Amino acid sequence: MLHTNIDDYTIDSSYTFDEGYETAIWYKENEMVIVERYKNLIDMKEGHKKWCEFCKSHPEKVYSVQYNKIENLI
């Protein structure tokens, strides 16, 4: 639904059949972390903007809501 490339990161926000609205950050070659889930489309759009801004700082770590742990992005 929403797809933004920022340097080495790709931020994807969409509706999934199993978890609903969520945002994932793709990094390296085909690695990804689900970073946030939302109640509705409006929240997802706002969250997507937030994660795009977050990736502009070239983060090395992020919390995975899928695995409930910190993941390395490098």
- Computed Rg: 11 Å
Mean pLDDT: 97
Distance between the termini: 26 Å
Give the count of helical stretches: 1
The low-confidence parts are none
Quick structural summary:
The chain is of the alpha+beta class.
Written description of the protein model:
The chain has 74 residues and is of the alpha+beta class. It is 20% helix and 50% strand. The strands form two sheets. Strands 1-2-3-4 form a four-stranded antiparallel β-sheet, with helices on one face. The protein has a two-stranded antiparallel ribbon with strand order 5-6. The protein starts with a strand and ends with a strand. 20% of the residues are buried. The mean pLDDT is 97.
Give a topology summary.
Elements: E1 2-6, E2 9-16, E3 20-27, E4 31-38, H1 41-55, E5 61-64, E6 69-72
Keywords:
globular; single chain; 1 helix; 74 residues; alpha+beta; 4-stranded antiparallel sheet; two-stranded antiparallel sheet
